[in-house]
């Protein structure tokens, strides 16, 4: 449970042969063990970013979650029926553009939404209904069993307390233990996430850390209570490419160390591609496609997913990019039918009338909300539907609402 | 200090020709103020230290690097928004660094900038027509002194021009009297581009123009930029950290690290055959939207952060994070050396074979680090933070059969 490590964290990322969960699993017969000591001043290492295999037991299940916010302009339907399950040690990637409801749905799971928010649906943590719990019970869960890593570590941390104090606070708010022991735990966690001189760094304030180190400290804070679920909301968006790689790798390493599952929220398809076992794509407050990461990336069954994938420049392709024409709909006045229909190259009358449910496609565990997924399935290159010359949407011309 | 860079410009194949924009040995220092009452200058931070580059008409130079490496500062110093400490910036042969403010204003008709944040760079109190037309007014191009703020009868020339600009960037001219908040991010960035184009510049400094936009919208703005370049023959100084977009849009690439250009050359040379270790690491760290490639690809993950520019490392600035660093790297700053085709690399030990480099970087780590025990003798995973009952199929359960002396490492 919460017994402190008996060994310095630096030894316990040792790899195991044959385990899919090797962080640096190379093709060769011997797994390599690299980068043990926390952050030497000189150094690089070579590795893959691959998370360990997922378990089968459900830790978190979300069903029919809806969140709306009453505003002066009307009811903003930020989340409209999100359902997903998260298995033990699984990494679930949630992708979507800004305003698609990916952050709001996770805030609802954490119980961090403002009081004005209207939340319905069910959220279960290991079978217990989270929304039906008392505030006290929710508090006991939050930060202990379900932890969160925020996008911007500078604003997520309190600037007037030391990092050590804040880490220890995370422990002390859930467990009765001497402050000294909590500090020792904080130190271990800082070492675990690769912060050099963790003991000295306990007394530092957040502003004395660099962006990457702050994000490491955030990860340390999230895992200090040994959670089952880590919700990482755009954990690397504010970081540079090389630091992003470090942080993602550390996140996987730490996740595998504490056996947690991760909900990884991001708009960066590259991050999801490397890390997530399964991927959920959101659009206008709803999941529009869920499936194994390979299925979603290689065999998209929802035109929006195909459009997203097609709009990323690829190395060999120097022709014109293929943006999705138009803009996401307003969450106050959603169009009738499929919310993607005004931008969709496959649109027909049925799309404008009825919103398609999230239903199984060619694979049973690959769900998509599209009337015409079979047309995508029949196409050689599903992203090709978004060629401007085919869609007739001149770049941006029809963009004004 | 900047002599190596200027020496290198001598080896450039295209030395004789006059470039549209020519930057030589650009240095940009900012004072560091003390804490006392007088806030005396206690030091200097060199954000850009001796950058030389050039840009020709109709060409795109992609500038990549991590935050704080000086890429934006370089862009602004070219525009003289920051007065460079030393070095020269020439636009069509005219030196900008010594120019008076009045002359500069005229030059800026040829040199415009698009900012990163389309939310902060547009005045929320001005309708779009005024935002775009402001430059025309300042430069006296808004039909002979008729400076009405809401496009009254006498200002037809300007209004028309603004309408043209809006349709040029794919917006409808009727929307010109709306305010910025009524537009989406992608549309706002189009307004920012229209504003920069109002004076028909030859060079556009694009400071992370698509970083703040959603993926599907980015592509539209990138397409727009490419179209405009084809139609108007613009030269782009394209600053970005998204390597795939830079690869798509650029003709040439400059990679910056801690205020210096470490590698520059034609796009395909730099992307397909990176020679500076930093470029190799940067390219290998960038995630791709391809699950299979992501799983199998080996990447070099640099440890630590970029050193502080207040106190940059001696010699090669990358040496503190470089796996190839040797003694000479600490003492001698590597000059940029031309490896053919204008591919300049500032490294004592340039990378020739990326594949081999990955192996060597790995070996270096295993051999060179005493704290790293041999993989085969490493203890079984100790599973320090206990399991959660049923969840205990994690690391501690998969005990390593190859490691009898568990936990011997320290």
Supply the key terms.
heterodimer; A: 401 residues; alpha/beta; Rossmann fold; 2 domains; 8-stranded mixed sheet; 4-stranded antiparallel sheet; 14 helices; 13 strands; 20% strand; disordered N terminus; disordered C terminus; B: 410 residues; 13 helices; globular
Characterize the structure shown.
The complex is a heterodimer of chains A (401) and B (410). Chain A has 401 residues and is α/β, with parallel strands linked by helices. Chain A has helices at 102-110, 135-141, 153-156, 163-172, 179-192, 198-201, 211-223, 241-258, 269-275, 293-298, 303-310, 349-353, 373-378, 388-391, and strands at 44-47, 58-71, 74-87, 91-95, 118-125, 128-129, 146-149, 229-233, 261-266, 278-283, 286-292, 359-360, 367-368. Chain A is globular and about 65 Å long. Residues 1-43 and 390-401 of chain A have low confidence and may be disordered. With 410 residues, chain B is an alpha/beta fold. Chain B is globular, with a radius of gyration of 26 Å. Chain B has helices spanning 3-11, 71-78, 101-107, 128-138, 156-168, 185-197, 215-232, 243-249, 267-272, 277-285, 291-296, 327-331, 354-368; strands at 21-33, 41-55, 60-64, 86-91, 94-95, 111-114, 203-207, 235-239, 252-257, 260-266, 299-302, 337-338, 344-345. In chain B, the strands form 2 sheets. In chain B, strands 6-7-8-3-9-10-13-12 form an 8-stranded mixed beta sheet, sandwiched between helices. Chain B has a domain at 3-110 and 199-356: Rossmann fold (3-Layer(aba) Sandwich), CATH 3.40.50.300. Chain B contains 13 helices and 13 strands. The interface between A and B is large, with 107 and 98 residues.
Summary of the model, kept short:
Chain A is an alpha/beta fold and 401 residues long.
């Amino acid at each position: 449970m919460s017994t402190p490590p008996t060994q310095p964290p630096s030894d316990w990322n040792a790899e195991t042969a044959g385990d899919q969960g090797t962080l640096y699993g190379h093709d060769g017969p011997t797994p390599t063990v690299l980068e043990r000591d926390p952050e030497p001043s000189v150094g690089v290492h070579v590795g893959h970013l691959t998370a360990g295999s997922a378990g089968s037991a459900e830790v978190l299940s979300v069903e029919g979650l809806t969140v709306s916010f009453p505003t002066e302009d009307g009811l903003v339907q930020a989340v409209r029926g999100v359902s997903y399950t998260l298995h033990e040690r699984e990494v679930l990637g949630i992708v979507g553009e800004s305003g698609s409801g990916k952050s709001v749905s996770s805030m609802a799971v954490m119980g961090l939404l403002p009081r004005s928010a209207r939340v319905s649906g069910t959220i279960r943590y290991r079978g217990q209904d989270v929304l039906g719990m008392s505030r006290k019970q929710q508090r006991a869960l939050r930060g202990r069993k379900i932890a969160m890593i925020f996008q911007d570590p500078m604003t997520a941390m309190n600037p007037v307390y030391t990092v050590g104090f804040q880490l220890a606070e995370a422990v002390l708010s859930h467990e009765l233990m001497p402050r000294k022991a909590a500090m020792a735990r904080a130190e271990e966690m800082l070492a675990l996430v690769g912060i050099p001189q963790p003991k000295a760094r306990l007394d530092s304030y957040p502003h004395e850390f660099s962006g990457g180190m702050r994000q490491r400290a955030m990860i340390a804070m999230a895992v200090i209570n040994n959670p089952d679920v880590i919700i990482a909301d755009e954990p690397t968006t504010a970081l540079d490419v090389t630091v992003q790689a470090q942080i993602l790798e550390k996140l996987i390493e730490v996740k595998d160390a504490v056996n947690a599952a991760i909900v990884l929220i991001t708009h960066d398809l590259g991050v999801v591609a490397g890390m997530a076992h399964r991927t959920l794509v959101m659009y206008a407050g709803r999941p529009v496609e869920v499936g194994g990461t390979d299925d979603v990336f290689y065999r998209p069954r929802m035109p929006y997913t195909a459009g997203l994938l097609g709009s990323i420049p690829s190395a060999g392709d120097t022709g014109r990019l293929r943006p999705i024409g138009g803009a996401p709909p307003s969450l106050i006045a959603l169009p009738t039918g499929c919310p993607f229909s005004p931008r969709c190259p496959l649109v027909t009358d049925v799309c404008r009338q009825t919103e398609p449910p999230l239903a199984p496609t060619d694979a049973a565990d690959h769900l998509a909300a599209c009337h015409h997924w079979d047309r995508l399935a029949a196409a050689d290159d599903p992203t090709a539907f978004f060629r401007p010359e085919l869609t007739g949407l001149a770049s941006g011309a029809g963009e004004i609402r | 200090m900047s002599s190596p860079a200027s020496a290198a410009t001598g080896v450039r194949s295209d030395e004789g020709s006059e470039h549209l924009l020519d930057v030589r040995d650009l240095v940009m220092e900012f004072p560091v103020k003390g804490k006392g009452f007088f806030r005396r200058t206690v030091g200097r931070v060199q954000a850009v230290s001796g950058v030389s580059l050039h840009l020709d008409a109709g060409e795109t130079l992609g500038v990549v690097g991590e935050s704080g490496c000086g890429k934006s500062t370089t862009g602004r110093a070219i525009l003289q928004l920051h007065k460079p400490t030393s070095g020269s910036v020439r636009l069509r042969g005219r030196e900008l660094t010594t120019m008076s403010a009045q002359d500069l204003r005229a030059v800026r008709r040829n040199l415009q900038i698009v900012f990163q944040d389309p939310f902060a760079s547009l005045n929320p109190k001005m309708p779009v027509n005024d935002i775009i037309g402001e430059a025309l007014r300042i430069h006296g191009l808004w039909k002979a002194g008729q400076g009405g703020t809401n496009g009254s009868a006498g200002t037809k020339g300007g209004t028309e021009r603004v309408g043209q600009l809006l349709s040029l960037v794919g917006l409808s001219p009727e929307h010109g009297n709306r305010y910025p908040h009524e537009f989406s991010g992608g549309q706002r960035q189009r307004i920012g581009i229209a504003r920069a184009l109002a004076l028909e510049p030859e060079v556009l400094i694009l400071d992370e123009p698509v970083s703040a936009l959603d993926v599907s919208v980015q592509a539209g703005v990138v397409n727009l930029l490419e179209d405009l370049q084809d139609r108007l023959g613009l030269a782009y100084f394209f600053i970005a950290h998204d390597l795939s977009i830079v690869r798509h849009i650029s003709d040439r690439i400059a990679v910056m690290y801690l205020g210096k250009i470490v590698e520059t050359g034609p796009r395909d040379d730099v992307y397909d055959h990176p020679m500076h270790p930093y470029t190799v690491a940067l390219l290998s760290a960038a995630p791709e939207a391809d699950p299979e490639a992501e799983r199998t690809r080996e990447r070099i993950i640099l440890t630590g952060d970029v050193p502080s520019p207040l106190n940059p490392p001696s010699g090669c600035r990358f040496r503190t994070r470089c796996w190839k660093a040797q003694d000479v790297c600490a003492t001698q700053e590597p000059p940029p050396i031309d490896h053919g085709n204008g591919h300049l690399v500032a490294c004592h030990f340039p990378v020739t074979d990326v594949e081999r480099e990955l192996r060597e970087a790995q070996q270096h780590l295993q051999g060179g680090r005493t704290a790293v025990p041999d993989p085969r003798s490493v203890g079984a995973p100790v599973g320090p933070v206990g399991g959660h009952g049923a969840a205990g199929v994690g690391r501690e359960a998969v005990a390593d059969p190859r490691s009898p002396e568990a936990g011997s490492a320290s």
